[in-house]
Write a structure and sequence with these properties.
heterodimer, A: 474 residues, alpha/beta, globular, B: 100 residues, mainly alpha, two-stranded antiparallel sheet, flat
């Protein structure tokens, strides 16, 4: 499969057309979507119309945009006007948003061609896509294993060569972990860098939209396109999108990279080994490698599994059968609300709603939610100190390679531990990127994670690019 | 340290969250949520009296804009998504009980 950068270049030079690239993408989808369950909705007619418009612009001599003619897959929690959007839930089956997410508008303005929406854990709650009402997605590299989650469909779309790029959302690792398990690049941008307008909310103080790609440069190109202030998201950062692609070859010479003990502890031996080799590669490229301990990371999981469910219990109160989505009729409005939510939500969503409701309830608020918010302060302070010692932090993305279906479904806590290395970044509001580096058990890919303070994306992409070059030359 | 989660606690939060659970689900959720909360006891037990709580990574400031009229979503589009609508309004089953 061609990279996004190559497609844009070839289209602008007239060496290919957006329509031809789209047909290639649709062929790859037809070949494996039934087996892998990557897309929940493919919009061929609309995609063909979009591609034809790009080709027309090229013929007219107009600038077709930074992502001209690049097929892209969108996670099923990103609203697009008139296109069925479900967030992996029965409660939104058949719902068509009356407006589009800001990221969707930005992608279309840049000439990208959305081909469809991808499967995900219900309301992004999960690490394997197994909680989707629409069935799990299979890992293209080994269909007996999960692709990771919650953005498993978007990761699988890129890993299976169906689209060169895709968008996901990351609340506790939902972009980075599936990127690692599928052997591709995944980015969790600084909180507020990308507008959340039109993203179906899970935990609003943690959610962030970001790209998947086969390589670091494509990921940077997508992030440049979707970033920037949006007046429709009051939490969006005030500045315009940063320049990322132009500085991607900046390297790491003279940079201080810290290997964080808590971000590898408990990982499988082959994962620890890959992180060590990544450190070696960065050292060879001129970085200074130090070791660092951030003990606060150990409390991240507990804090996250109180804060995220608390916010979710509030955000998901809107699904009550009144204004949109499923309604199960009953004799009065309370019974209707209850019957609708009981049928419409799956077990994991119910678990988190109840956990959040409990953590926020009188008598437990201080012990759980209140304490979690204070741990969040400690986490932010701890990372701030770490970034005085180092420019970039290094660790594992996930504790193991892709696991088998059913392995963690009966034990929610075991599933939650899949996100133990990714959660701290969301709590701190910082940026992180997962880059494939080496393989482990059964030849499956391993992802290493590069973390930086807020607004450090340019530096993270440059470091990721160093690892990509080291991988290619080894 | 908080007390262990009981079956009646789960029944209560389910009711608050407008979810009905079968007897079997009540057992399963009590066990699973109990495990998660037990894990969370590591932070419930900390002494964090001097720490300020953070609800949002960069702190939230109130954002205001000039009071200029802009178009909103068309009413028909919005009501068109509703399970039931009547006379330009969302329609729901009865809210009040019968008059005595």
């Amino acid at each position: 499969m061609k990279s996004a950068v190559e497609i844009v270049r070839d289209i602008k030079q007239g060496a290919t057309t957006a329509s031809a690239e789209l047909e290639r993408s649709l062929e790859a989808i037809h070949a494996r979507n039934e087996e892998l369950n990557v897309f929940v909705h493919v919009d061929e007619t609309a995609a063909r119309e979009t591609a034809a418009r790009i080709d027309e612009r090229v013929v007219q001599g107009e600038d077709p945009g930074a992502l001209a003619g690049v097929p892209i897959a969108l996670k099923d929690n990103l609203c697009r006007i008139g296109v069925p959007t479900t967030a992996g839930s029965r409660i939104l089956e058949g719902w068509k948003p009356p407006y589009s997410a800001t990221v969707v508008d930005l992608l279309l303005a840049a000439g990208a061609v959305p081909v469809g929406t991808t499967n995900m854990d219900e309301f992004a709650m999960g690490s394997s896509t197994e909680t989707s009402y629409y069935g799990p997605t299979r890992n293209p590299l080994d269909p007996s294993r999960v692709p990771g989650g919650s953005s498993g469909g978007s990761a699988a779309a890129v890993a299976a060569g169906m689209t060169p790029i895709s968008l996901g959302s990351d609340t506790g690792g939902s972009i980075r972990q599936p990127a690692a398990l599928c052997g591709i690049v995944g980015v969790k941008p600084t909180y507020g860098l990308v507008s959340r307008y039109g993203l179906i909310a899970f935990a609003s103080s943690l959610d962030q939209i970001g790209p998947f790609a086969t390589n670091v440069t494509d990921a940077a190109l997508v992030l440049e396109t979707i970033a920037g202030h949006d007046p429709r998201d009051s939490t969006s950062l005030p500045e315009p999108a940063p320049s990322l692609v132009s500085v991607i070859e900046s390297g790491v010479a003279g940079k201080r990279v810290a290997l964080v003990r808590e971000l590898v502890d408990g990982a499988d031996a082959d994962v620890v080994d890959a992180v060590q080799r990544a450190a070696d590669a960065l050292r060879e490229a001129g970085a200074t490698i130090v070791e660092l301990s951030i003990p606060e990371c150990r409390l991240g999981l507990s804090a996250y599994y109180l804060i995220a469910p608390a916010e979710a219990s509030s955000n998901l109160a809107r699904y009550d059968g009144v204004r949109y989505g499923l309604r199960v009729d009953a004799e009065d409005v309370s019974a209707m609300n209850e019957a609708t939510r009981t049928l419409g939500f799956g077990a994991e969503v119910k678990r988190r709603i109840m956990l959040g409701t409990y953590a926020l309830s009188a008598g437990y608020y201080d012990a759980y939610y209140g304490q979690a918010l204070k741990v969040r302060t400690q986490m932010i302070d701890a990372f701030r100190s770490a970034y005085r010692e180092a420019d970039v932090l290094l660790g594992a993305t996930a504790p193991s390679v892709a696991f088998k279906f059913g392995e963690k479904m009966s034990n929610p806590l075991a599933m939650y531990l899949s996100d133990v290395f990714t959660i701290p970044t969301n709590l701190a509001g910082d940026a992180a990127i997962s880059v494939p580096f080496g393989t482990g058990e059964a030849g499956l890919p391993i992802g290493v994670q590069l973390l930086g303070p807020g607004r450090s994306e340019a530096q993270l992409f440059a470091a990721g690019r160093v690892l990509e070059l080291a991988r290619e030359s080894s | 340290m908080a007390t262990p989660l009981r079956r009646e606690d789960v029944a209560k939060v389910a009711k608050l969250a407008r979810l009905s659970l079968s007897e079997e689900e009540l057992d399963t959720f009590t066990e699973q949520l109990g495990q998660i909360l037990e894990h969370a006891n590591d932070i419930a037990a900390l002494n964090l009296d001097d720490i300020v709580a953070t609800a949002h990574p960069f702190g939230l400031i109130n954002v205001v804009r000039d009071d200029i009229l802009v178009p909103c979503l068309p009413v028909d589009d919005v009501l068109g998504m509703a399970p039931d609508a009547e006379d330009g309004r969302f329609a729901v089953p009865r809210i009040m009980g019968e008059a005595p």
